[in-house]
From TrEMBL:
It catalyses: alpha-D-glucosamine 1-phosphate = D-glucosamine 6-phosphate. Activated by phosphorylation. The keyword Metal-binding applies. It comes from Candidatus Hakubella thermalkaliphila. The gene is glmM. Its EC number is 5.4.2.10. This is Phosphoglucosamine mutase. Signal peptide: none annotated.
């Protein structure tokens, strides 16, 4: 059986790869493995607004109840809300139906432990192994032991209250633009910032689900960039489909990714002596300019694999307060156990207000090296990434760029994509190398390597 779990749960094209039958089995086996057999058990379930969420939700509910565990529906709500509510309300586990920033046709299923943590690789492997057996499906509860389904109607308000409790700031004179990606943040983010007094201009707030991430959100920052420039607001922020990442745009219309946001937050906390341990956890994709910025303030940079779950694991291991990814997943361990786009935007706003500086000034703490990322969609990503032809070319360029840049290729954990990243001091060189490697990956996938 192929490995189901990627870097962020199970994903695929809904009703083709990720079928209701598979969703039922994941609900049943995942519940048995995570909750165990002690007591009745309770699980909270949230989702993004994709149309396929309805059929997958029904299947998961059936699987969980068939395992003898009660399930509480939180409805359309950001992923980090489920991580928070699982801990806050004492649930045995949390489940989210979402494919995050992926296209509309995709969907996904991810689990959280009772501590609000994503599952370990070992537990995911145990779930997959049990999915291959018939035995767990033979031992089902009957009668009153069957699980029940309830609505968790106060989930949104509990999450909003939590978000507001993390800052002490009045935004009465602040103009803020939001791009909610027609996703889970649409029903939450505008309310949060409005309650703090901000004048909010929000776009892409549909909850029908048929336009989620469509030329909007954190993977298409041009939408929020255009809005900021045309509306002359103080700040723009753009979320992804499930609200666990954020990209910012300063008042002049310049885009800031997760590396830049993290650097600004760390500089501020370091200045106020609130950082604790002088270290931060990022992934291998973080720009070299981030390391240079951290060196100036005496903060050690720890790099890990791509995926906020791996960032969190290393943060806990090292005792770090802050960590994150270039994509905009930022983790504040005092407040959350996963990336949270709305929470990050709140913390960034607090820095702007406390420092009394616009974001265009704050961003000067870090100067990025030219970096280009190519997302190459292929049929056989494993075959491409392990090809001798690609490996030899990567090694060649890394030797050429030693001391002034680097080249990295990795598999997407959520799509059939090979991601190629190139950094160097020379922008033209960076562009040339990334385009050459991207074309090589396409040729390898078609069996046309020259």
């Amino acid at each position: 059986m192929r490995r189901l779990f990627g870097t962020d749960g199970v994903r695929g094209i809904a009703n083709l790869d990720l079928t209701p039958e598979l969703a039922f089995r994941l609900g049943f086996v995942g519940t048995r493995k995570i909750v165990g057999g002690q007591g009745r058990g309770r699980i909270i379930l949230g989702r993004d607004p994709r149309p396929s969420g309805d059929l997958l939700e029904a299947a998961i509910i059936s699987g969980v109840c068939s395992a003898g565990v009660d399930i509480y529906k939180a409805g359309i709500i950001p992923t980090p809300a489920i991580a928070f509510l699982t801990r806050r309300e004492g649930f045995d586990a949390g489940i989210v139906i979402s494919a995050s920033h992926n296209p509309l046709e995709d969907n996904g299923i991810k689990f959280f432990s009772r501590e609000g943590l994503k599952l370990s690789d070992e537990l995911e492997e145990a779930v997959e192994e049990e999915l291959q057996l018939d035995q767990p499906f033979l031992d089902r509860p009957l009668g009153v032991r069957v699980g029940r389904c309830y609505d968790k109607s106060d989930a949104g308000e509990l999450y909003i209250d939590h978000l507001l409790s993390t800052v002490s700031v009045n935004l009465g004179d602040f103009q803020l633009a939001l791009d909610c990606a027609n996703g889970s943040a649409s029903a939450i983010a505008p309310l949060v910032f409005s309650r703090l007094g901000a004048q909010v201009l929000a776009i892409n707030t549909e909850l029908k689900g048929d336009r989620i991430n469509l030329e909007c959100g954190s993977t298409h920052p041009g939408a929020i960039q255009e809005l900021v420039r045309s509306s002359q607001v103080d700040l723009g922020v753009s979320f992804d489909g499930d609200g666990d990442r954020v990209i910012a745009v300063d008042e002049k219309g310049h885009i800031l990714d997760g590396d830049h946001i993290l650097a600004i937050l760390i500089y501020h906390l370091r200045h106020k002596k609130l950082l604790g341990h002088p270290l931060v956890v990022v992934t291998e994709m973080a720009n070299i300019g981030f390391d240079m910025a951290m060196e100036k303030v005496g903060v050690k940079v720890i790099r890990t694999r791509v995926g906020d779950r791996y960032v969190l694991e290393e943060m806990i291991k090292r005792g770090a307060f802050l960590g994150g990814e270039q994509s905009g997943h930022i983790i504040f361990l005092d407040h959350s156990t996963t990336g949270d786009g709305i929470l990050t935007a709140l913390q960034l706003l607090q820095v702007i207000k406390e420092s009394q500086q616009p974001l265009s000034e704050l961003k000067k703490v870090m100067e990025k090296l030219p970096q280009r990322l190519a997302n190459v969609r292929v049929k056989d990503k494993t075959g491409v990434i392990s090809s001798p032809g690609l490996l030899e070319r990567l090694d060649l360029y890394n030797r050429e760029l030693k001391g002034r840049g680097r080249v990295l290729a990795r598999l997407s954990g959520t799509e059939s994509v090979v991601r190629i990243m190139v950094e160097s001091e020379d922008e033209e060189e960076t562009t040339r190398i990334v385009e050459e490697l991207a074309q090589l990956a396409r040729d390898l996938d078609r069996g046309q390597e020259k």
